[in-house]
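Attaching the record inline, Q. Sequence:
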Amino acid sequence: MTGTITTLLLHKPYGVLSQFTPEPGSRWGCLADLVPVPDVYAAGRLDADSEGLLLLTAEGRLQQRLTDPRFGHWRTYWVQVDGEADPDQLQRLRSGVLVQGRQTLPAKAEMLANERLSNWPERDPPIRVRRSLPTCWLEISLREGRNRQVRRMTAAVGLPTLRLIRSAIDLMDGQPPLSLEGLEPGQWRSLTSSEQQRLQALLRRPAARRRG
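Structure, as predicted:
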């Protein structure tokens, strides 16, 4: 099995670095603890304290294609924040906020209904919630991936992030995004033949489509 897989999807749990080698002295684990597949690497990163969908591939061109902001692949996140978001805060997230001296690109931001997460596994370890303060879940989609961007964006509008889960990556081909569906934290799977074909088609798109 491990000799034939070149691209796979992982539900990265909390506490794991998006790399296969541990960092000396770090309290975090690494991908080698979860994925016994050689010569694959993360196409885009998730911080150790974030969770969710991570695409691992042996194809360098695919890594570059999916992480280059010029191609504008939407990544969707479920974000639990400290506080209750109001319409003004959501609009500010959509319009772009100032993060480390630069304006973020326009984003998508909506309230996320609790029913969508009713069967979602709790984080291990659980987040700390102050009982005197409410929390809510947002669904935020971005076309760029700056360092800790979602956390910095929600903090900029007064909604500190408590938990962050990447739920989907849109290949921008008119078909459903790659998602966490069917994967528990720590689980991974190889891509279906249809998904592999979609990724190969992605690499054949002309460079002119990079814009936007």
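Helices lie at 60-67, 87-95, 149-156, 193-204. The CA atoms of residues 82 and 160 lie 5 Å apart.

More tomorrow.
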